[in-house]
C-alpha cells in the first residue's frame, strides 16, 4: 500500500520511521474497515489526518499514531453517515474553540459514565497544540485520564454522524447542520485558570454530562 500525503508535503520528505509507521497504520485501518472502504479512501483519510497535525506539532514522533487515531474516528463517522455502520448507539460530539479543555473534559466524563453504551467525540474550531495540563490534573483527581487525548478539528463527517452536538464557546465557528440536536453549554474556559477554578469548571461539566446522558436512550 502506498501512502500519498496531501498538500505540499511529499512522501519522500517524511522520515523513514514516519513512512513505515504510516504504512503500518494504513494496513491496520484496511483490516478494520474491510468491506466498507478500499485502500484509496483509507490512504486519503490517513494522509489528510496526518497533515492536520504535522504543521503545528511540537513533537513529531507520535504524528503517525495521532493520524491513525483521527483517521479511524473519521472513517467510523463516515460509515455511520453512509449507513454502513449502524449499531444503534447514540453519538455525541463535544465542541469548543481549542479542543484543549472543556470539550476534552466533557468527553472524559461522558466516556467514563456512558461506557460502551454510546459513542462520543470531541473537536475544536481552532485546535490548540496540547490538552490543557491543568484540565488533565483536575480530571485525574476524578480518576479519569485525558492525558492521551489531543486537540483536533471537527470535520464534516463527524458532525453529520452525531445525534447530539454540544457547543462550548465556539460561537459562529461551530458547525450547524440541519436535523441535529444542538445544546450550548455556557461554561468558563479553563485556559489560563488556576486549579481551583478548573475544578469548578470540571464539576459543572460533570453535572451537564450526567444531565445529557439522562436524556439519551441508553
TrEMBL record:
<keyword id="KW-0059">Arsenical resistance</keyword>
<dbReference type="Pfam" id="PF01451">
    <property type="entry name" value="LMWPc"/>
</dbReference>
<dbReference type="InterPro" id="IPR048716">
    <property type="entry name" value="Phosphatase-like_N"/>
</dbReference>
<protein>
    <submittedName>
        <fullName>Protein-tyrosine-phosphatase</fullName>
    </submittedName>
</protein>
<feature type="domain" description="Phosphotyrosine protein phosphatase I">
    <location>
        <begin position="90"/>
        <end position="215"/>
    </location>
</feature>
<dbReference type="GO" id="GO:0046685">
    <property type="term" value="P:response to arsenic-containing substance"/>
</dbReference>
<dbReference type="InterPro" id="IPR023485">
    <property type="entry name" value="Ptyr_pPase"/>
</dbReference>
<dbReference type="Pfam" id="PF21234">
    <property type="entry name" value="Phosphatase-like_N"/>
</dbReference>
<dbReference type="InterPro" id="IPR036196">
    <property type="entry name" value="Ptyr_pPase_sf"/>
</dbReference>
Amino acid at each position: 500500500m502506498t501512502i500519498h500525503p496531501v498538500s505540499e508535503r511529499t512522501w519522500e520528505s517524511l522520515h523513514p520511521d514516519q513512512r513505515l509507521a504510516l504504512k503500518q497504520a494504513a494496513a491496520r485501518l484496511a483490516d478494520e474497515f474491510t468491506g466498507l472502504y478500499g485502500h484509496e479512501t483509507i490512504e486519503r483519510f490517513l494522509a489528510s489526518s496526518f497533515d492536520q497535525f504535522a504543521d503545528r506539532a511540537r513533537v513529531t514522533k507520535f504524528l503517525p499514531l495521532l493520524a491513525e487515531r483521527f483517521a479511524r474516528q473519521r472513517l467510523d463517522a463516515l460509515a455511520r453517515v453512509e449507513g454502513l455502520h449502524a449499531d444503534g448507539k447514540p453519538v455525541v460530539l463535544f465542541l469548543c474553540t481549542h479542543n484543549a479543555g472543556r470539550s476534552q473534559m466533557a468527553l472524559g466524563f461522558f466516556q467514563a459514565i456512558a461506557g460502551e453504551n454510546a459513542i462520543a467525540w470531541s473537536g475544536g474550531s481552532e485546535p490548540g497544540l496540547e490538552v490543557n495540563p491543568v484540565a488533565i490534573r483536575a480530571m485525574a483527581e476524578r480518576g479519569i485520564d485525558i492525558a492521551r487525548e489531543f486537540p483536533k478539528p471537527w470535520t464534516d463527517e463527524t458532525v453529520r454522524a452525531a445525534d447530539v452536538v454540544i457547543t462550548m464557546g465556539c460561537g459562529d465557528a461551530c458547525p450547524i447542520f440541519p436535523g441535529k440536536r444542538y445544546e450550548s453549554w455556557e461554561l468558563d474556559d479553563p485556559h489560563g485558570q488556576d486549579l481551583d477554578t478548573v475544578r469548578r469548571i470540571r464539576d459543572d461539566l460533570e453535572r451537564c454530562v450526567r444531565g445529557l446522558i439522562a436524556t439519551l436512550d441508553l
